[in-house]
Design brief:
This protein has 156 residues and is mainly alpha-helical. The chain has one domain. Helix content is 60%, strand content 0%. The protein contains seven helices and no strands. The chain has helices at 17-29, 33-37, 41-60, 75-83, 87-101, 108-113, 126-151. The radius of gyration is 19 Å and the shape is elongated. It starts with 16 loop residues before the first helix and ends in a 5-residue tail after the last helix. The model is unreliable at 11-15 (pLDDT under 50).
């Protein structure tokens, strides 16, 4: 057998199921942390910075924090794309919702800068902002799949 045609041994998933689950959930909640657990700090920092910059740049461009609305079922896809960012999505949504009704809140200027997550549809960059936040979330899903492939020894 040549080197290029060597056998690939199947990986036993059942023994590592807990580790894989923790890796994927942490990788979702904090972008890049899955790679940090795999002892790949350069990748982890790069992924974290790219995803955070994309998400908050999109929010700065006037993006809306999407949530599911029954009357408009396609909002589900926008929400799933943004929730891919993990904790930053939930924190930004919670801060925006709370600060909208509490002007004495410490993070009120932060939430006001992002229009409390309501989006600025009159802003010319509104659609760009939405696209940036969606891409950030979808990129994090791909980063989680990359970490999963490394654990399954499909790649280095």
């Amino acid at each position: 057998m040549t080197e290029s045609a060597r056998k690939v041994e199947p990986v036993t998933v059942s023994s590592n199921l807990w580790y894989i689950s923790v890796l994927c959930v942490l990788g979702w909640m904090i972008p890049g942390s899955g790679h940090l657990l795999l002892k790949k700090p350069k990748r982890a920092v790069t992924f974290f910075l790219c995803i955070m910059i994309l998400f908050f740049w999109g929010m700065n461009l006037g993006a809306k924090i999407w949530h599911y609305e029954r009357q408009q079922p396609l909002t589900f896809f926008a929400m799933v794309a943004q929730t891919g960012v993990g904790t930053p999505y939930f924190v930004t949504r919670a801060v925006g919702t709370y600060a909208q009704n509490h002007s004495e809140f410490y993070f009120y200027p932060f939430a006001g800068r992002f229009n409390f997550g309501q989006g600025v549809i009159s802003n010319i960059t509104f659609e760009y902002g939405n696209t940036f936040t969606w891409v950030a979330g979808l990129l994090n899903f791909l980063v989680i799949l990359d970490a999963f492939d490394i654990v399954m020894k499909r790649k280095e």
